[in-house]
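P.,

For your records, the input lines for the assembly:
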Amino acid sequence: MSARDDNADAGSWRKAYGLALSLFAVEVVLLYLFTLRFS
Amino acid sequence: MNRLDYLVLIATILAIPLYGLWRTRGSASLGQYLKGDASIRWATIGLSVLATQAGPITFLSMPGQAYESGIGFIQNYFGQPLALIVVCAVFVPIYQRLKVYTAYQYLGERFDRKTQLLGAFLFLIQRGIAAGITIYAPAIVLSALLGWRLNLTIWLAGGLVIVYTVIGGTKIVSITQRYQMIVILVGMAIAFAVAVYRLSPDLSFENTLSIAGKMGKLEAVNFSVDPHKRYTFWSGLIGGFFLALSYFGAGPIAGATIYRGRLAQRESPRVALQRRGEGADAVFHSAARRDCFHVLPTRKAADLLQSTCVPARDGEAAMRHS
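Structure tokens returned:
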């Protein structure tokens, strides 16, 4: 029971890290498109 | 300045800290004072981290730098998300397991008192100089706006922050930074709208961006591997990663913000219930012991195990039996 909850906790952290990396990737792509458009 | 400007200024400088003092009245233990508590929500912590990063220097110097040499310097921040993930996944759990409040307390337990004091001394020198600039820059603006002597605005800005931080501890910093950040974000949005509104009638917003781009000011991302180029994606990713790792992982002030975020998550009611569960005690403490030995592979590990892990077990056992 406790080990399963611990895994769920670790899973939620992994999701948070994944979300952060995804947002970062989207940010870089958008900035690059902005650079291509206006430079 | 008109009446609305004065209203926003006074609300930001006085009302927000006063509200923070009211919200944190009666805060008791040293742990709560230094780390906040689990009642601080993740959104508050997120805005607090953002406010820590976006100080007055950011708003005063970055537009000037962008105007002067373009916006390429923003690539320096590309390493930050990766560094924060490493801090959350690696650094903070170690601090949390060893029940230390600062990176320097950890250094003291891992090595010795001299190392702890040297690290703390270097940090205080570095942050003391940085805090001087951080207070000086907005004090110049306040002095110009209000027509007061510069010395007075420096003392007022620094004194106010010292008073409410000493009285309210970490929790008040989180609470006040949330509202300060809201004021900053709303102010940025209004400033952007006014700047666009006041563009020359002969120029559209897109034309303005095109002209800035032709002048080389809008190269936000550059994938060049030429080492002579000052700002590139790669230099920002690698250099920014280690800079942010040092700042958030080893700097106690910014690191503490992340720490209390982790703490608030880890000490949620579900985790607390989990700890009370039958068998959780053994799992938790076998992991804690393994990690203690893993990060402290010296004789000190045995002493630290006695002083941190074992009392925690007793405390939890008492909690379970209560």
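Two observations worth noting. Residues 2 and 8 of chain A are 10 Å apart (CA to CA). The two ends of chain A are 56 Å apart (CA to CA).

Regards
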